[in-house]
Write a structure and sequence with these properties.
376 residues; alpha/beta; Rossmann fold
Length: 376
């Protein structure tokens, strides 16, 4: 394959977990993929190490740099692995520039789903999912008539607290001990509250254009099956793969080209058995909050995302308890008057408002807690 046939890739959030694994994928396929740009949020030391080691010409630090790199004329694929709502501007910029956006930034579609879809329409950009669950659903839905689909189902590991009865004294260390995946702190806490599944439901709505009643969640502790499509003829299609994020990353970077993985498929005989169970929404109220925000639409998902992000940060800094995360989020949603968010500026306005309200709610809960009752 000549250099001109290689897909030229920019990675936003290159120093994080997804970004580092994406670099591994690109290095393993020098004939098919070429890394031409990297950007990070604040980790200048790690970014410089990557630039020196990889000889990447285009690089930068901060959100403005990410937006600039997302629109590089030479880039074919922009992998957005920025954590949090900071990645939204870059997603919109990449889509307006007509890029294939390999999306690992949940917040782009959760907070700015309407804005991203409008940007893609304006610039003829394409969104390709990187999340293992959405990548699995995309594979199962490929070539299928939407009319034949009854429901799509996202699977959840259940996080570290699937069987833990008492969540009153959960510490950040407890919540960061994920049983299956190795991820960054924010998404790991979202996995512990199951908010990550709620956010993925909203993402799936924008990616695949199904109504919320057609999008389900099943807890699957083995994390072997990543997505299920149920058809109207009562049959179902399940996608199984190892718990290796390099698989969906490689699929997204290579899309729409086929690729051959050097890994091994799941050995179902070694797994032994597969369990599926419904989500206990009483113990994990974040799921219901996400469904509610998605169904209400307009700016509610953006508020959900921003308030949750602030609450997770407060929990990690031990300012609030684990069980306060959904309480803070719900309080901000309850005080919100929705607006249309088809433009980026509107999304950012709502995001800023929600963060301020969440900060106030966090302060109130911190003031109300005794020293012994605060998160340890």
């Amino acid at each position: 394959m000549s250099n001109t046939d290689r897909r030229r890739v920019v990675i936003l959030g290159s120093t994080g977990s997804i970004g580092r694994q994406a670099i591994e994928v690109i290095k393993a396929d020098p004939d098919g993929l070429e890394l031409i740009g990297v950007a990070a949020g604040r980790d200048s030391t790690s970014l410089q190490e990557q630039v020196d080691a990889l000889g990447v010409r285009h690089h930068g630090l901060g959100s403005d740099a990410a937006v600039h790199l997302a629109t590089l004329e030479q880039a074919d694929v922009v992998l957005n692995a920025v954590v949090g709502a900071a990645g939204l501007r870059a997603s919109v910029a990449a889509l307006e520039a007509g890029k294939t956006l390999a999306l690992a930034n949940k917040e782009s579609l959760v907070a700015g789903g309407e804005a991203c879809r409008a940007a893609a329409a304006r610039g003829n950009g394409l969104i390709v999912p990187v999340d293992s669950e959405h990548a699995a659903l995309a594979q199962c839905l490929s070539g299928r008539d939407k009319k034949t689909v009854g429901r799509i189902v996202l699977t959840a590991s259940g996080g570290p607290f699937r069987t833990r009865a008492d969540l009153d004294d959960v510490t950040p260390e407890d919540a960061l001990a994920h049983p299956t995946w190795s991820m960054g702190p924010k998404i790991t806490i979202d996995s512990a509250t199951l908010m990550n599944k709620g956010l993925e439901v909203i993402e799936a709505h924008h990616l695949f254009h199904f109504e919320y009643d057609q999008i389900g969640i099943l807890v699957h502790p083995q994390s072997v099956v990543h997505g299920i499509v149920e058809f109207v003829d009562s049959s179902s299609l399940l996608q199984a793969a190892p718990t290796d994020m390099r698989i969906p990353i490689r699929a997204a970077l290579g899309s729409p080209q086929a690729f051959v993985s050097s890994g091994k498929p799941v050995s179902l005989s070694s797994v032994g058995h597969l369990e599926f169970e419904e989500v206990d929404q009483e113990r994990f109220p974040s799921v219901a909050l996400a469904y509610g925000a998605g169904r209400r639409g307009k700016s509610f998902p953006a508020v959900l995302n921003a308030a949750n992000e602030q609450a997770v940060e407060a929990f990690l800094s031990r300012s609030i308890r684990f069980k306060d995360i959904p309480v803070v989020t719900e309080s901000v949603l309850a005080s919100h008057d929705p607006i249309e968010v088809t433009e980026l500026d509107a999304v950012l306005q709502v995001d800023s408002w929600a963060r301020q309200k969440a900060a106030q709610a966090i302060e109130q809960r911190r003031d109300a807690a005794t020293v012994g009752g605060a998160a340890r």
